[in-house]
## 1
Amino acid sequence: MTAQHQNHALKAAVIQHQSPGYDKHKNLQTSAKYIEQAAQAGAQLIVLQELHTTAYFCYTQKQDYFDLAEPLNGTSVKYLKQIAADLNITLVGSIFERRTAGIYHNTAVVLDGDAGMVGFYRKMHIPDDPGFNEKYYFTPGDATLNGRCAFQPIQTRVGRLGLLVCWDQWYPEAARLAALQGAEMLIYPTAIGWDPVDTVETQQHQSEAWRIIQRSHAIANHLPVLVPNRVGEENGTQFWGQSFICGAQGEILNQANQDDEGIILADIDLQQTEQLRRTWPYFRDRRIDAYRNLTSRHIDQLN
Amino acid sequence: MTAQHQNHALKAAVIQHQSPGYDKHKNLQTSAKYIEQAAQAGAQLIVLQELHTTAYFCYTQKQDYFDLAEPLNGTSVKYLKQIAADLNITLVGSIFERRTAGIYHNTAVVLDGDAGMVGFYRKMHIPDDPGFNEKYYFTPGDATLNGRCAFQPIQTRVGRLGLLVCWDQWYPEAARLAALQGAEMLIYPTAIGWDPVDTVETQQHQSEAWRIIQRSHAIANHLPVLVPNRVGEENGTQFWGQSFICGAQGEILNQANQDDEGIILADIDLQQTEQLRRTWPYFRDRRIDAYRNLTSRHIDQLN
């Protein structure tokens, strides 16, 4: 074993909290409180939920809400950058990004200690259903950016982060493309919840499916997965919390409950990936000669 | 609702049993016993485990074992065809196929009542590790066959079967390509087990990962999944049974234990797929403009 392969334990935290109203500074102060708790507990990597600076405004289509958007060098990113530098941590935040007039994104940002913002990821898969009008607000992320294909991981001092956002979590393609580009872990800042009119059984099927699909990305790619989710009721959606961190075989390392704000911590073993890929060599056996049609919307059956 | 959308319940069964030794007729009689039980319980679709006519010979590399292979119109398929016709069921079996001298496959076959063999699927992803020398025996299935891309589902009177085999279960790509071609359910005849020298914790992580990855294919594609697995000890592998059937949101409908031979039954609601795809429209939002690199072995990072 070389020195490079030793000492690859990483203490990570994900945070779930309520983000009521539209006072960004107030919500950022809530985030800061939990970030400080996590850093004091030794977390080197800390991940916040999707759109944590405001209430989840996509419950409706309202043109004024575009005023909430801000550029990548805006106030929220500056605030998070300062925290990351002060606490000497790697921090993943989430903003409603104004890229230019008429182009707005749902963007995760990475603040890496005193190195500042070392990368960002614009949500690629955009949902749209009652209570989640995201196609109205968010332009989908670019399929290629600066000549690199999408789902490019972000290099930080704690490893290469495969950053994805919420609805991306239902797409094995996204996780795979991050893994093929060298991601060392997958990260899904999330805002997902139940419709209170659904039965408890329906709700449980939904949150169980959500947990399983993300654990499956760990399993298929042998990568740890970190998922912070929003919590609390907003405008008819009960955000279901249950933030979790799992290891590279999908095993749950820690999980939050569905109601309470707080942090969860886990020690992630980054050596596990190579060991598992030797024991279960899925990547060796991918039938890349047979996958071309994955770029089809549907393969219509004409006979 | 049109008549076409009504009455889409399907009673299905998966069978797990031991398959000791190399007397194919004897093992086929074991299969037949359980097939009859399942048919009497009302099963319209019955699925057998991988390579059920013999012991799992891939534990070692032995040239004589190629003598076990037989053509698609060989004795084993004829036997299964007769059962399917007699019991008026749709039956999925598994054979070691001799396609020609020097080309052998691990092939699932579909016998559809009195219609005979309506299709087959040659395992695409071939594992190879200690105790599972499959690359020695099995030529991988063709990337295209008769001008159609691989993972083409098989039309039967109970629906379009997305047939895959064992190691294929670790590849979201395979499930997706079956779904994009109109599969109405996914089926994985399997022979997977524990190494008894591993710890109980390692073993449980493995079988839990196996269950989750297959439930994730249900979730990502909104299709029911049927998985029969071999059971019993053979040549240093403890096949772990735990055959299961889950619904189109990954919810477990029925599951066998890890030790005993037997059948498990479930009523599958084939209407659930369209309903779930309307509520959770993943297929609408796939970023097919960004998936081209899924045909890469690895996307090397040159800077």
## 2
Amino acid sequence: MKIAIVGAGALGLYYGALLQRSGEDVRFLLRRDYDAITRNGLTVFSVNGDFTLPQVRGYRAPDEIGTVDLVLVGLKTFSNQLFAELIGPLVGGNTLILTLQNGLGNEEALAELFGGERIMGGVAFLRSNRGQPGEVHHLGEGRITLGEYQCCNPERVEHLLGMFTRAGVDCRPTEDLKRSRWEKLVWNIPFNGLCALLRQPINLLLAKDACRRLVLDIMQEVITAANAQGLARPIAEAYAETMLGITYKMGDYHPSMLIDREEGRQLEITAIFRKPLEYGRQQEIMMPRVEMLATLLEQIQ
Amino acid sequence: MKIAIVGAGALGLYYGALLQRSGEDVRFLLRRDYDAITRNGLTVFSVNGDFTLPQVRGYRAPDEIGTVDLVLVGLKTFSNQLFAELIGPLVGGNTLILTLQNGLGNEEALAELFGGERIMGGVAFLRSNRGQPGEVHHLGEGRITLGEYQCCNPERVEHLLGMFTRAGVDCRPTEDLKRSRWEKLVWNIPFNGLCALLRQPINLLLAKDACRRLVLDIMQEVITAANAQGLARPIAEAYAETMLGITYKMGDYHPSMLIDREEGRQLEITAIFRKPLEYGRQQEIMMPRVEMLATLLEQIQ
């Protein structure tokens, strides 16, 4: 399969490297890492074992790549206005576009430009960081929950599932991509938001009753908004407590948005906060705590 | 009038100095400033003109002062557990206690210890800072709104009003002290809280639509809780917009809680946030944004 990686950061480089290692024809659209990767290849430092790809196909512009079978989108969501420019030249008649980006609104934006029938989405649970140019660090997890944006092509899902599985990625199908995205937000909104705002790891948030209560209240707001979106199966209220239980075991974990703030990068406030707020409001669900958190994060951005 | 100043910080030193200058017999309970003040007196650097009191009566312990006509309480509210120890020895049969502290719950705590009939409260609008030992800086304002905790002794209010007026303080009576305290909170809760949390002056809060909206939403929560407390006259909803209009003219003003945070001091979260939340809840008024703000401030405390 001919695959283009658009947004070759910590996520795109990692999954792209795994796919190339398993035999796929992967083309990376590169900026910062272009010189290092085209000269010396790409090295993955991974909790599952390090490896180097000495020959990697890197490009500076999408029209040098041409049309592909699959575009894998790993862009930070605040760069979504570049979709047309970066992805347009890659799309032929049968091209699939799979976004592994954070939050909500990405499939919709891609569908508007390229048609909904070719859009797929994956919810990625990955801990990875960029290193020096030509390097990427895989710190943990890597699982992808994968589904169609529009109903229904089970063979196509099976095909991508097989591709990721061969590449060593724990990849699972979902028949309700929207639900999977909202489920991830139940965790992401409070923990990414509060940790980034307060510059504290998750165990400090959970150390005080009032703040633990706030986390649960935020989770309930997200669950209520999610369940107003016409999901096939609602998210149970108890999901919040379940998530909290899992989070206790994560110790002094720094969520990605906290790391983004610590390293001075832009925060993905629109996709993770403002889009969910917008979809909630469309169903007349108000989320005062999520709204306040988004506003406070924009204020420190 | 024999007056004891308990809590001789930026507020207590300033009002105490004005009262002594106008001829009252003022006794200061001192810790940090004891040596400097008993040796060299007290200097006020004021926007209204500097002055020095070369002779000031300073004491280390309240029983050295004995009973007085009036105790003026300027303690930071997180030291309210010291009321019995610091004020007890000063109280005789006819002693009045006037608290000029921030937030809610101070009159109640004093009334429980010393009886409600002798308690009065003043809402102080004062910008002052401690300087070197023996010095206090008056940066602006100074107005006091003064009233009875329990109904009703107009002569007593008149008497204190006259005393402050002679001392050069713009002092006005209120027949609804509770309302005056809540009115001040309509400004104090959003601006002290958000500025301290974000480490931003007020003009940065007002620069973005979403944050200005958040300020107004918080103000409305406070107004709703206030109006559930049985005030003689409700606070109008439009009061929020009025306050906002005044605030625009204050430029890059740093509210006192922001200064407290910048200088590493403890924040008055209980009196300014938790007590209003408690009084709200007693009337079944929930304040989700105020609650979230209190929780976030406790988290960085």
